[in-house]
Write a structure and sequence with these properties.
Layout: E1 9-17, H1 20-40, E2 43-51, H2 54-57, H3 63-66, H4 74-81, E3 87-91, E4 103-107, E5 116-120, E6 134-136, H5 140-149, E7 154-156, H6 162-171, E8 176-180, H7 181-187, E9 195-197, E10 211-216, H8 220-227, H9 232-248, E11 256-265, E12 271-280, E13 287-294, H10 297-310, H11 313-319
Parallel strand pairs: 1-2, 1-3, 6-7, 6-8
Antiparallel strand pairs: 3-10, 4-10, 5-8, 5-9, 11-12, 12-13
Helix pairs in contact: 1-7, 9-10
Length: about 325
């Protein structure tokens, strides 16, 4: 315990983007935090502050050209540092590796489905897409892996929130769009998923399917609350994936993917982690992949990154500005 008086009354202001998905995620987080408060005797109430980020304002340029690091979090983090908000709810895949001094990830709640998915006009798997099908995505990581699996596909850049991207399936005559399954799941739109893309075909973004709850390091009250919201398996997996991202100095919009699975008890009493990482060229011609096992998440992430660097991943990333 960190010395919190559970009888202290407090209004906690949570900052979030104002997209439907961001607000839904934040509402789900608040519901869970309220449950913990009731059970543990914290006298806290919650307010939401909607915010607009650079990534929300610039919608006519691909993310990789805008600059992928922190596009959806910087303004929110500044509000945290300025004391305008107390917590921030992020999609973990949007968070850059380096957090500003004075801020920390206070909790990583249980992850939902980390896979990418296809929303298709017709069909129920990747193989059902016709030759030369037009597929929309804003992600170099997705287009690299899909082109590698299906060189015939025509990948086209689309931006916007989930609902606006789904509409583009019709308005722009696309055959399919690729989205994170987690977003559709959180919105309650699972019925719109035509097919989940296996991780051996398209490895997710670092932290995909997980949320990050960011707070100030010196806010001991909130750190105590968030500790009760943390899911240890998700935390270990995300730490490994983010260590991989940091070792490659990659932003969220370069062709980097990683997925860590947490196994049972290892020999030394620690959880065994199995992580796969990829780095690809935007055209999908080259796709480097490595898988390693370990028990230390940060070391495992670095080991997978080092194995890929030894095969030329650093040169690929340098060429595309990663």
């Amino acid at each position: 315990m960190m010395g919190t008086n559970h009888r202290d009354k407090r209004v906690i202001v949570i900052g979030t983007r104002q997209s439907a998905l961001a607000l839904t995620q934040t509402g789900q987080v608040i519901d869970e935090l309220k449950r913990i408060c009731r059970e543990q005797g914290f006298d806290y109430t919650f307010e939401v502050k909607k915010m607009v980020t650079k990534g929300d304002r610039i919608l006519d340029v691909t993310l990789s050209k805008v600059g992928g690091k922190g596009l959806f979090v910087k303004e929110i983090e500044q509000a945290l540092l300025d004391g305008e908000i107390d917590l921030a709810v992020h999609s973990m895949k949007d968070m850059p590796y380096e957090l500003p001094e004075g801020l920390m990830n206070g909790a990583t709640p249980k992850r939902v489905d980390p896979r990418d998915c296809l929303v298709m006009r017709e069909g129920s798997c990747l193989a059902d897409l016709p030759q030369g099908a037009r597929v929309g995505t804003s992600s170099l990581r997705r287009s690299s892996q899909l082109k590698h699996a299906r060189p015939d596909l025509q990948l086209e850049s689309i931006r916007g929130n989930i609902d606006s991207r789904i509409r583009k399936l019709e308005t722009e005559g696309l055959d399919a769009i690729v989205l994170a399954a987690a977003g559709l799941t959180r919105m309650g739109w699972e019925d719109r998923i035509s097919a989940n893309v296996p991780v051996d075909v398209c490895l997710p973004a670092v932290g995909q399917g997980a949320l990050g709850i960011e707070c100030r390091e010196n806010d001991l009250q909130l750190r105590e609350l968030l500790r009760l919201f943390n899911d240890i398996e998700t935390e270990l997996a995300v730490r490994a994936e983010r260590s991989f991202l940091g070792a490659l100095n990659g932003g969220c919009q370069v062709p980097i993917g990683a997925y860590c699975e947490v196994g049972g008890e290892a020999v030394a009493g620690e959880r065994e982690l199995v992580m796969t990482g990829i780095v690809g060229t935007p055209d999908g011609v080259t796709l480097l992949k490595e898988m390693k096992r370990g028990t230390d998440p940060e070391q495992l992430g670095r080991d997978v990154a080092d194995a890929l660097i030894a095969r030329g991943a650093d040169r690929i990333l340098a060429e595309i500005g990663g």
